[in-house]
Predict the structure of Glycolipid transfer protein domain-containing protein.
Amino acid sequence: MATAAFPPGGTYFDNVKRSFTDVPVNAAAGNAISTTEFLEASESLTGLFDVLGSAAFKPVKGDVLGNVKKIRERQLESPAESETLQDLVRNELKTKKHTATEGLVWLVRGLDFTAQALRKNLNAPSEELAASFREAYSNTLKPHHSFIIKPIFSAAMSATPYRKDFYTKLGDDQTKVNEELNVWLKALEAIVAILKEFLATKEAKW
């Protein structure tokens, strides 16, 4: 049996290295999002794929971590120009390169997929995870995936555990789990919305 992903009396979110609730967003500077904390929170999010427990989710997790790596490499290369995600994108595009920017586009799609799947499931107490994840996949990643990738991700959607098993792995107190998941999701959704809006602007295009 898998070990619990949470401390006694707590929830999965107590063990998260960095939550999206802890990612600084500077509203006065056009909702600038701090790069370091955002990448840490994105890495921490992949722990949820481990809780989902299926080997089928390895490509989803690998996709997120691969895109985090592209963004972090650019940040390490030019730290002074990459303190916020928006500055990182603007400054990379000035060099006529777009590896990290493209990584961010794909990372945001992956985060959007995760947020939509969990939000739909949280809001529909009788719906199984597979249905929520399939719908979220259709709305987010599927339109951008090739015919080779689609079956791999579709298999992951169908391999999700039963709803009750997943939520039990997040904590013993389901009311607390739902409350903390909702807080985490709201922060993630807000960041995804800011980044989607920014990435749709001319200055983020290559």
Remarks:
- The chain has nine helices and two strands.
- The longest helix spans residues 174-199.
